[in-house]
Amino acid sequence: MRLNAVEVGAGPPVVLLHGLLGAAQNWGTIQTALAPDHRVITLDLRNHGASPHAAEMDHGSMAADVAQTLQALGVPRAAVVGHSMGGKVAMMLALTAPALVERLVVADIAPVPYPPNLRAIVAALQALPVTPGLTRRAADALLAATIPEAGMRAFLLQNLRFDATPAWRIGLAEIAAAMPAIEDFAAPAAVFEGPVLFLAGARSDYIRPEHEAAIAALFPTARHAVVPNAGHWVHAENPGGFLDALEPFLGQAP
Fold first, then answer.
1. Is residue 156 within 8 Å of residue 21, measured between CB atoms?
2. pLDDT of 252 higher than 70
């Protein structure tokens, strides 16, 4: 599958991959900051943003989409940065197509299965009555009982078109059906030897000490850094701190 791509800048290519229920636009601040020195390619993963929808949504399929898209864009090798679900896709790409990945940055996720904590949010979106006349204000009010954080609701509602016939931009049914695969991480029998940086949010518990063995087994060169004043959404909550860790790593020799 060829994915929707947003490109800015010129120079060594950097690919940015968003998380679950996100889109390429989530990387706007980071993309703008990197563009003076890099060709920044931000992708909508399948069933997200303006990319096509498909029933299959395991990390291997999504990594294959990224590989196909880079080939179509004439990018033989790139630094790949992924957040959360996008981080798992980036790791899978590095493990299955290492020639494409010059270096890897994984933002606040580990190569391990995670509990089904986000299924309630997906179910709440599915329960939303997407009917003619639905407004953003009304949709926000309907989601408030299940999703109390106003910022999270605003983020999620970016996926809903509010026009004469409201509709989801995302493949919501496909995402809901694929949640077990998204939560899992079926690592292949491979090791990525290139440079790797894991970036954790200081207030996040997504990367834990007990994950270090799994990380080291697949990514033996991995280094770790913590983004201060940030939770799971490291690049959005503290973009300056995120860039402070990211930019030196991108500039280092392989």
1. yes
2. yes
What type of residue is 129?
Answer: P
The pLDDT tens digits for 189-224 are 999 999 999 999 999 999 999 999 999 999 999 999
Q: Two tokens at 43? A: 């992708």
Using CA atoms of 36, 41, 240, 205 in order, give the dihedral in degrees to the nearest 10. -160
pTM (predicted TM-score): 0.96
Tokens of 18: 């968003």
Per-residue pLDDT of 80-114, as tens digits, reads 999 999 999 999 999 999 999 999 999 999 999 99
Q: What six digits make up the tokens of 233?
A: 């959404």
Ordered DSSP codes for the chain: -PPPEEEE--SSEEEEE--TT--GGGGHHHHHHHTTTSEEEEEPPTTSTTSPP-S---HHHHHHHHHHHHHHTT-SSEEEEEETHHHHHHHHHHHH-GGGEEEEEEES--SS---STTHHHHHHHHHS---TT--HHHHHHHHTTT---HHHHHHHHTTEE-SSS-EESS-HHHHHHTHHHHH-----S----S-EEEEEETT--SS-GGGHHHHHHH-TT-EEEEETT--S-HHHH-HHHHHHHHHHHHHS--
Which domains are delineated in the chain? 5-112+185-251 (3.40.50.1820), 119-171 (no CATH)
